[in-house]
Specification:
It is a single chain. This protein has 365 residues and is an alpha/beta fold. It has 2 domains: 197 residues, Quinone Oxidoreductase, Chain A, domain 1; 141 residues, Rossmann fold. The chain is 25% helix and 27% strand. The chain has 10 helices and 18 strands. The longest helix has 13 residues. The chain starts with a strand and ends with a strand. It binds zinc ion (ZN) (2 copies). One zinc ion binds next to helix 2.
Length: 365
């Protein structure tokens, strides 16, 4: 079937909207008509040549998609046509050691893509196109393994549900699942983009008594306050470590989160910790990034940990976080700064780099 998709061919160059062939679902695959896709930093990292994964090109990017199932392969048991779904890049096999231990976000089974020998899911005039992490949502349709999606309540708006597939899942999960946050503790969030704002919200839902948002853009700090930050620090004007210490009566915070993928911010997060504090690194750093800090900067018994996609069990967590949305506890309407069409993808990247948006969501017919 022919469809429109945004193709990434060369680093630092705009994506191009082209006609692409998408295969039929086979086995446990589902074909989903894309309704909406968020524009996430991980895609921009790839375009800017800073991706964590070496990627073959040409490739169709995008991984924060939601839509409606159009067709299912013969072996699909969990979905049928008409179901509303959110895609997640934490597709899981269900049988590897990590999946069996209850950590499907760390799956090493590699089930969600087609084997190399199989015909490609996406192609153009007989030439294969790569699919991004088994999803490729910058396209009118997605062909994915059923374990890369979760069915959601059809009453939910798909443009906001899409965000829960990556940025919101990652941020809320980092606070509620990875960090070990307990009600009444103090929190600082370094970087208040889409993921950082979701961490702020997760900390609020988890009962943090103080949530300090740190960013260099005033617009993002205002958003952080709107979704739950009790204090904000503009780190372009003030040293954030000094400011966080001042705001916590000198103690530092129980939990510091790094939400950008920047070694300097990781160091600031660690240096902002209280005794027995925990720094959770949520951002994806460049592969060769090195984090250095003076030994004296670490308070006694501090911990530093990473969070992979919010330690999610997404089949449980996405419906749960959407329930928080329905209850008015997780604010998603506020997270969508702009809406556009697939053709607006390059403008969405520009706006993200300029710090103008929490999220742009691209809508399809
Ligand atoms: Zn993402
Ligand atoms: Zn697995």
């Amino acid at each position: 079937m022919e469809m429109k998709a945004a193709i990434f061919r060369k680093p630092h160059e705009p994506l191009t909207i082209e006609s692409v062939e998408i295969d039929k679902p086979s086995g446990r695959e589902v074909l989903v008509r894309t309704a909406a896709t968020g524009v996430c930093h991980s895609d921009l990292h790839v375009v800017d040549g800073q991706g964590r994964w070496p990627l073959d090109r040409p490739i169709v990017l995008g991984h924060e998609g939601a839509g409606v199932v159009e067709a299912v392969g013969a072996d699909v048991t969990t979905l049928r046509p008409g179901d509303h779904v959110v895609a997640c890049l934490s597709g899981f096999c269900g049988s590897c050691a990590q999946c069996l231990a209850g950590h499907p976000n760390l799956c090493v089974g590699g089930l969600v893509t087609r084997p190399d020998a199989a015909p490609p899911r996406l192609s153009q005039q007989g030439e294969p196109l790569r699919q991004f992490i088994g999803i490729s949502s910058y396209a009118e349709r997605m062909l994915l393994h059923e374990n890369s999606v979760v069915k959601i309540d059809p009453a939910l708006p798909l443009d906001r549900a899409a965000l829960v597939g990556c940025g919101v899942l990652t941020g809320v999960g980092a606070a509620l699942r990875t960090s070990g946050l307990q009600a009444g503790q103090t929190v600082a969030v370094f970087g208040c983009g889409g993921v950082g704002l979701a961490i702020v919200q997760g900390a609020r839902i988890g009962g943090a008594r103080q949530i300090i948002g740190v960013d260099v853009f005033d617009g993002k700090l205002e958003m952080a306050q709107r979704v739950g930050a009790t204090h904000v620090v503009n780190s372009a004007n003030d040293d954030p470590v000094t400011a966080v210490r001042a705001l916590t009566g000198g103690a530092g915070v129980d939990h510091a989160f790094e939400a950008v993928g920047n070694a300097r911010l990781v160091r600031q997060a660690i240096e902002s910790l209280a005794i027995r504090g925990t720094a959770t690194i949520v951002g994806v750093l460049p592969p060769d990034a090195t984090i250095e800090f003076p030994w004296m900067a670490i308070r006694p018994e501090c911990r530093v940990q990473t969070s992979r996609m919010g330690s999610n069990r997404f089949r449980l967590d996405i419906p749960l976080y959407l329930e928080f949305y329905r209850q008015g506890r997780l604010l998603l309407d506020e997270m969508v700064t702009r809406r556009g069409r697939l053709e607006d993808i390059n403008e969405a990247f520009r706006a993200m780099k300029a710090g103008e948006v929490a999220r742009t969501v691209l809508l399809f017919n």
